[in-house]
Design goal:
Strand content: 15-25%
Radius of gyration: 20 Å
Shape: globular
Number of strands: 10
Distance between the termini: 60 Å
Order of helices and strands: EEEHEEHEHHHEHEHEEHHH
Helix content: 25-40%
CATH architecture: 3-Layer(aba) Sandwich
CATH superfamily: P-loop containing nucleotide triphosphate hydrolases
Largest sheet: 6 strands, mixed
CATH topology: Rossmann fold
């Protein structure tokens, strides 16, 4: 008989309240190791609060949570060694080059061969050609990819991405999506918060819907679709979406993105 794998993240009965506002009302979910788990919900649903508790930035009022086997309340230092957090806005130094940002973080983590680490991450996130340029010349998608690359220094087994594509254009969103997929292929566990349904659909192995402080649905995309009545078969002409049109007329070439950013357009 095989023993079930311990989840990378386990949340049980999580509660958090502020004066006159109850944010989390007993949240439960598990995240399997090496998977992408999407916490889907509208603004104010409590997604960021969950991430702050799991990353030891906030203490829960009740319930328990473990990350990489460590209790977030009793072993916060061990949790912080196991995770990386990318917030809603890219935490990059715009004066430094992309490579210098990566080298700085590697040195702050007291890692050897900081330059080698930086070059490897630039290549992994398709930023080698832009690595010598100031980050102030980067597009939104490039900054976000650099931000995610910085969060991977030290190879944390768990990464939290809190609404990583907020404010990005369609092309930049796809660049970030590809980066997240690559994280999963490399075996990193990703907890992704988002309010975009298509983002959860494209990226997540499992999706939990957080609404008014509670998980109201949790499963794979196929399982969640089975919650609805069987679809009726209708023959209609499929029209392209605005995103289809945008990508068709602008192309899907990240080289163009780099050139535009360098010229400031």
């Amino acid at each position: 008989m095989t023993t079930p794998l311990t989840p990378a993240i386990r949340v049980q009965g999580l509660e958090k309240s502020y004066p006159k506002l109850r944010v989390l009302r007993g949240v439960d979910f598990d995240v399997a190791k090496g998977s992408v788990f999407a916490l889907l919900g509208s603004n104010g649903a409590g997604k960021t609060t969950v991430v702050k508790i799991l990353s030891t930035l906030l203490r829960a009022d009740a319930g328990t949570a473990t990350v990489d086997g460590f209790d977030v309340a009793t072993r916060p230092a061990d949790v912080r060694q196991s995770i990386s957090l990318t917030g809603q806005f890219a935490a990059v130094d715009e004066i430094l080059t992309g490579r210098e940002n990566l080298v700085l973080v590697a040195r702050l983590r007291h890692l050897k061969d900081a330059g080698v680490i930086a070059d490897g991450l630039l290549a992994r996130f398709l930023l080698t050609d832009a690595g010598g340029r100031a980050v102030s010349t980067y597009s939104g998608g490039m900054r976000r990819r650099l931000d995610i690359a910085m969060s991977l220094i030290g190879n944390p087994p768990v990464i939290f991405l809190d609404e990583p594509t907020t404010g990005l254009d369609p092309q930049s969103r796809i660049e970030v999506w590809n980066s997240v997929k690559e994280l999963a292929r490399q075996g990193t566990t990703v907890l992704l918060t988002t309010q975009y349904l298509d983002e959860a659909e494209h990226l997540a192995d499992r999706i939990a819907v957080l609404h008014q402080g509670r998980i109201i649905a949790n499963g794979t995309l196929a399982e969640l679709k089975r919650l609805l009545p069987p679809a009726k078969t209708e023959y209609v002409e499929k029209q392209p979406t605005l995103e289809d049109v945008f990508l068709a007329i602008t192309g899907d070439d990240t080289t163009d993105d780099t050139t535009d950013s360098a010229t400031g357009s």
